[in-house]
Amino acid sequence: MEKFKNEDLTAGPTSFDATLHVNVSRPMAVLKITDGKDAFVEYRAAVKPTFPTK
């Protein structure tokens, strides 16, 4: 996946590197599950992602 540099994927341009295999700036869908059925609630994006330090 480290070879992904702005790959044109369904979710939008996607890049990865050796330490990060998730797009932390892309909005994520919040779903609610009631009686076994899921429903879209809203999109949320990370305002300021934090990463553990070594």
TrEMBL record:
What name has this protein been given in UniProt? Unannotated protein
> What species is given as this protein's source?
freshwater metagenome
